[in-house]
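cron nightly-structures :: item 1 of 1
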Amino acid sequence: MRRACLHLPPLISILLLFSMLCARGSAQSCTASSCTAASCSESSVLAALPSSSNTNSTVTVSIPACSGGTTWTTNLSYTQPPSVTTLNILGAGTPNSGAGTTGASSSCTTTYLIDNAGSSNPMFNIALTYPQTLEIGCMAIDPNSTSTSLTDPLFVIGTCTSSGCPSVRVHNITFGLNTYWSEGGNSSSAEAGML
């Protein structure tokens, strides 16, 4: 049996590649006030985030348990839609709360993510604008290894206005559950991940 090969001119190949990259960047499908990622993979979490057509002011995105660890080799780059004023991205478990409680809840380590997104791309790269708020919590984030060159696993860019700046809450995250972060091994760019 003879196989047929499709050969495209370079310009068409480039346009197809660009359209595939654009489709990946706009993969958000959440239009409800509560959405759950199908898995702990970067693409599943990205797909569970609010789409630009989501009209709910508060959206909670749940990441399921993946206690064996799920490695991310690409970063999640996302801009919070203007209509979503409060976005909560939470892993499985019950977070510790209250003024007298310190440290992450041990139940929050069941959503276990491994950062292998590279030295120029943070795992989570999220942009928001005042008056939006963002909450990220209840998960464990480890480097791929103690010598993998990485950057900050959580990177939030907030745009202020004359009325104020956006709010960000990061809580109940264990950095270094099974593999410790090291400025010497993971690079000085990853030091902010060692809270």
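cron nightly-structures :: done
The two ends are 59 Å apart (CA to CA).
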